[in-house]
Recover the amino acids of this structure.
């Protein structure tokens, strides 16, 4: 265990640097904060280091962490300063980003995919990934212009699901939709002009759903890539749904149709 | 139109006071911010006053508002200070709270209700109300200990749906469940120990769903009030869903079952 007591230590600078997307991209690293989140890290996922507060180190057995990676022990004040959460739990992990294999996902027998265009709200994006994980989706694809997956608020809202379901960023939706067409994976989107309920779609087969930006909805360009526009019924007076609720309704229709009879 | 240029004006003090629940409760008033939200106010809903910024007054026809209530025109700085949003749109409405009639709701032929126990996240609560509205639910009941419906963040997340669907606060769940039993309205809750999927429930009949706190789930007390525990299938690896997504999945199963064939 390495004790760190100075804010000039290079690890402190590095941890602070990882709060910024540019540095996360350059280093290929991100920070997972909190015990609950860290418990979701799969055994084979590469962790560069753990950082703990003095208080955490005094109360917890660290051998489990030391077996896997270097453990840095920071003064409580230094630890709080490198954390994004207001009431940090005393532990964080510096994780390697993983490069998932998109071709392997598309080559599955009946792929079940979620695509999102320019999702901007960190809470929404994280929740959508968590829902896709719960539903057993095969992957999530995020278009260019979406909020960064490794933004601390996004990570928190995923509740660790980014360790379970492959998420691809900076996706060119045109190029992806061409690949999907070649594999005969139909692309559906909820759209105000939709004329089919999701309940009428053949979702036991391969399927992909495209959801749009929270405020603007889908761009015309992206909507034109779809094989069918779907209408989520709204018998009440609200004119639209929250983006992560709409995604949940669509993804769960796949779950319902695929349940063993 | 009344011009207000001093922060000592009694209206300024009153508007600032309404940021606090205690004052909202005492006055029976709440503040609706922004054009989009204000457009959702039904014609017969009582508005005590509108407040606009000088900039808004210079660019908009206010006669529509003046027909309905007193219009206060604040300096841009004063207006920004009374608003909760960071980039206010220049208009807010001081609305009367409405007392909905719970007995009338319970007396409907096939009521469709949502109950929530101690929902604490303003965004979640607002989203749940918006979803209940979209689904055509007859009412939302909030237990004691929930975040205040008239909290600005809750209001914003409802997107105006609190004007469409009756929402009851400070509900004693025991007393409500007795009334529901008398009316033969079954109460369902998503529960880890649930053994029936929502798809197997008779939701064309009267039905009510109970959802729990975001972090703690349902209390044992509340779970014991239910007629059946329901399992939302999770074929993936996530162990739980975001509270508003879970509510969306349950409420939309009612919509699906009630769709005209």
């Amino acid at each position: 265990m390495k004790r760190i007591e100075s804010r000039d230590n290079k690890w402190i600078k590095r941890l602070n640097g990882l709060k910024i997307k540019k540095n996360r991209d350059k280093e290929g690293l991100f920070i997972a904060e909190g015990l609950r989140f860290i418990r979701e890290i799969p055994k084979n996922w590469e962790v560069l280091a753990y950082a703990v507060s003095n208080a955490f180190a005094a109360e917890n057995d660290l051998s489990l962490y030391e077996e896997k990676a270097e453990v840095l022990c920071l003064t409580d004040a230094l630890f709080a300063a490198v954390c994004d959460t207001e009431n940090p739990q005393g532990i964080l992990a510096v994780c390697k980003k993983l490069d998932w294999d998109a071709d392997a996902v598309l080559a599955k027998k009946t792929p079940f995919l979620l695509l999102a265009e320019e999702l901007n709200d960190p809470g929404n994006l994280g929740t959508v990934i968590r829902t896709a994980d719960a539903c057993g989706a095969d992957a999530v694809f995020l278009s260019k212009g979406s909020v960064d997956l490794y933004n601390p608020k996004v990570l928190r809202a995923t509740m660790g699901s980014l360790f379970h379901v492959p998420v691809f960023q900076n996706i060119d939706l045109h190029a992806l939709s061409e690949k999907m067409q070649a594999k005969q994976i139909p692309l559906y989107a909820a759209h105000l002009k939709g004329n089919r309920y999701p309940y009428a779609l053949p979702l036991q087969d391969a399927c992909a759903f495209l959801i749009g930006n929270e405020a603007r909805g889908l761009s015309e360009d992206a909507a034109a890539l779809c094989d069918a526009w779907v209408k989520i019924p709204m018998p009440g007076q609200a004119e639209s749904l929250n983006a992560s609720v709409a995604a949940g309704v669509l993804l769960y229709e796949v779950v319902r149709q695929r349940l063993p009879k």
DSSP finds twelve helices and eleven strands in chain B. The interface with chain A takes residues 123, 127, 130-137, 157, 159, 161, 164-165, 197, 199, 232-238, 240-242, 244-245, 248-249, 252, 255-256, 258-259 of chain B (CB under 8 Å). Residues 91 and 204 of chain B are 42 Å apart (CA to CA). Chain B has two domains: 2-96, 102-258.
